[in-house]
Write a structure and sequence with these properties.
single chain; alpha/beta; Rossmann fold; 2 domains; 9 helices; 7 strands; disordered N terminus
Length: about 280
């Protein structure tokens, strides 16, 4: 394997480049969803000595979880386009692992190198996900598998007590992304078809399992940090103002403000649900 640093240019559906930096959000999500993600990893039947690729490894948390499964005789390799993500992943990668900076559609890796490829919340960023999966499949040994993970195939539940505002907020987020990136609706909902993606990429024996990430008040610090910083501030916030009525925007703002008496995350009825789906296929 050789390392290849990719140039700073648009590569993905959302104009991901080597300079894009989601490090903070990725760390928040990994800390928040760690129990469910580790359970998903443990359910893959990874055996000691296997070679595993984390395609789109982000800040590298899953490298540690995968390394536990393959043991000292195995190998875990992380691959990510963003320079900031690679730096963060290398700072925490376990002994015997490697992290490469490269474009997923031009990986500096030999065909038939891996027993398993773990790709979570990654393939949806590609302009041609089917072609990307076929390329990843070429990196597998005979009988190798791709574990394709995607969060939020089902609508997340934030405000169990106000379905109307919850629905309007989801719609506002979709409108923002459609206008910001010039996307059609199918580009936002296409991530739901991970089973279809694996089959279109000619993988066999496809199975799927959905894990429910469920949190209620009082929240762990990691749960509150993710919901407040990555969602309330990083995904919603001022960007949703043009897509909501002034009254609805004010109500949402109050629910997202830790200083407000109606702050959602400290309400005794706070109940959050998010799905994580893992579809697995073999060559």
């Amino acid at each position: 394997m050789r390392e290849s640093v990719m140039p700073n240019r648009a590569a993905g559906l959302l104009d991901d480049t080597a300079a894009r930096d989601y490090s903070h959000k990725l760390r928040l999500f990994s800390a928040f969803a760690e129990p469910e993600l580790r359970h998903a990893v443990a359910g893959l039947g990874i055996e000691p000595g296997m070679r595993v690729l984390d395609a789109g490894c982000g800040t590298g948390e899953a490298l540690e979880w995968l390394a536990v499964e393959v043991g000292a005789q195995g190998l875990v390799v992380g691959l990510d386009l963003a320079g900031a993500h690679v730096t963060a992943a290398r700072a925490r990668m376990p002994a015997g692992a490697a992290v490469l900076q490269a474009d997923l559609i031009r990986p500096p890796l030999a065909a038939g190198s891996f027993d398993l490829i773990w790709a979570v919340n990654t393939v949806n960023h590609l302009r041609d996900p089917t072609a990307g999966l076929k390329l990843l499949a070429s990196l597998l040994r005979d009988g190798g598998r791709i574990a394709l993970g995607q969060s939020s195939l089902l609508p997340d539940m934030y405000f169990a007590w106000d379905a109307r505002l919850e629905r309007l907020t989801h719609e506002a987020v979709h409108r923002y992304y459609r206008e910001r990136y010039g996307l059609e609706e199918h580009a936002l909902t296409g991530v739901r078809s991970i089973v279809g993606l694996l089959r279109r990429a000619q993988l066999r024996d496809v199975v799927a399992r959905t894990y429910l990430i469920e949190r209620i008040a009082p929240l762990r610090p990691a749960d509150e940090a993710y919901l407040l910083e990555a969602i309330f501030r990083g995904t919603w916030g001022e960007r949703l103002r043009p897509y909501l009525s002034s009254d609805d925007y004010d109500q949402l703002t109050h629910l997202c403000d830790p200083q407000h008496r109606h702050y959602a995350l400290r309400r005794p009825e706070f109940h959050f649900l998010q799905s994580f789906t893992l579809a697995v296929g073999s060559i």
